[in-house]
Write a structure and sequence with these properties.
By secondary structure, the chain is an alpha/beta fold. Helices cover 36% and strands 13% of the residues. The chain has 2 domains: 193 residues, NAD(P)-binding Rossmann-like Domain (Rossmann fold), CATH 3.40.50; 166 residues, Rossmann fold (3-Layer(aba) Sandwich). The chain is built from 13 helices and 13 strands. The strands form 2 sheets. It has an 8-stranded mixed beta sheet with strand order 3-2-1-4-5-6-7-8, with helices on both faces. Strands 11-10-9-12-13 form a 5-stranded parallel beta sheet, sandwiched between helices. β4, α4 and β5 form a beta-alpha-beta unit. α8 packs across α9, α8 packs across α11 and α11 packs across α12. The longest helix is centred in the middle third of the chain and has 32 residues. The relative contact order is 0.09.
Amino acid sequence: MLISEKSTAVSSMETVAVIGLGYIGLPTAAILAANGLKVIGVDVSSTTVDAVNRGEVPFVEPDLGIQVAGAVAQGRLVAQKETPQADVFIVAVPTPFLADKSADLSYIEDAARAIAPKLQGNELIILESTSPPGTTQHMATVILAARPDLSLDGSNQRPIVMFAHCPERVLPGKVMIELVTNDRIVGGLNAGAAAAATALYGTFCQGEILQTDAATAELSKLVENSYRDVNIAFANELSIISKNLGVDVWELIKLANHHPRVNILQPGPGVGGHCIAVDPWFIVAADPENARLIRTAREVNDAKPDHVVREILAPIAEISSPVIAALGLAFKANIDDMRESPAVGIVRKLALARPDATIEVMEPHATVLPRDLRDLPNVSLNSRDDALNTADVIALLVKHDKFGDIDPSTLNGKHVVDTGGFWPQLVTK
C-alpha cells in the first residue's frame, strides 16, 4: 500500500552528510551539491577522501568527474573521515553477504554508531544501502540505544529523529543520468520521514517519487534484482542446454524473441555486481522455505562460471604450457567495477586449474589486477594484440565496446569461447 503524507520535512535541509563515497554515495553527494545543498562526504578511505577533495573520482563513472570537480570548486562538497553534524544523513555503505548468504550489517551498524552522538533531534536519516526488510528499523534501534534521549514518536517529550529507506535503482555507467530520471521509492519508518525524504530527493529527481513504508521499500529493491536474476538464469541455463544439443543459443534466442510475448535475455559468464549477485540471497535468508525459485536462479547463475571454465580448458587439455587470453574483468560492460565479477572468478579458477598456463588478461578499464588475482604468478595484464596473437584459447568474458572492433577473421583457427555473443560464428557447437 502506498503511503501519502503531507510534508512534515525537517525544518532545515541545508547540510547533508553522505556516509560512504562509493559507487552510489559519491554520485548522490555530487548531485545534491550541484542542486544547492552543502554536502559533507564521509568515507573510511583516506585515498577516497583525498581524491574527492581534489575534485577527482576514484573509479570510472561517466560524467561524475565533472560533477564532483564542479561541486568541490564551488565549495559545496567536501570529504572527510569523521562523521559531522548535519540536517540529513544518507547512509550508502556496503552490505555484503556472509558465508551463510545472510546480510552483513556491520557497516550500517558502524555508520549508525558514528551518527548517534552527532544528533540533536529533528534530523532525517536515510538508508540507501540495499538491505533485507527490517534493516532501517535495526539502524534506528542501534542509534536510539545509544541516544535514549531521542525517539521515533516524540514520546515523553523526547526530540524526534526520522528514519527512511530509499534504495538506489541506477545502472553503473549511467548513474548520473538515472539518478535524475529514474523513479524513486521512499519508505518511511516513522511519521513524516517519507515526506521529508521526498522533499530532499525532489531537489534533483525528475522521476516520480513513490512513498511507502520502510520494509516495503527495502523489499522492493530486492524483488527488482531477483526478478532480473531469475530471467538471466533462464538465459544462462538455456545456453548450457543449447551447447549440449549442438544448437547456437544466440540464433535460438533471436528466433524465440520473435514471439510477441517472449523476451529472453542474453546469456553471459554468470552474474556479477553488488546488486543482482547479492540481493536475491537476502530474500532467501528472510524466507528460505518459500524462496525456492529465487534460490534456484541464484544457484544456476553462480554455477555458470564453472561451465565457462570447462569450455576454456577442454581444447587445451593436451597442450603443455598453453596461453589463454581472457578479455574483460569487470562485472558488466564499459565500467571498471569488479565486485562479484564472474570474470574475475573464472580467471582465478583457470590459473589454479592450470598453473602451467599463461593467462593474459585484457581489461581496458584497469591498470592493475584486482586483489583476487594478484597472488597468481601466471596471470598478468597485457595488451590486446599481444595476447590475441599468442593465445591458444581466447575467452570473451565481458562485452566491452573496445572489444567490438576486433576483426573476427584474425581469430580464425583459434579456440574461441564467446560468452557475450560477439563472434558466435567462430564458436564450435
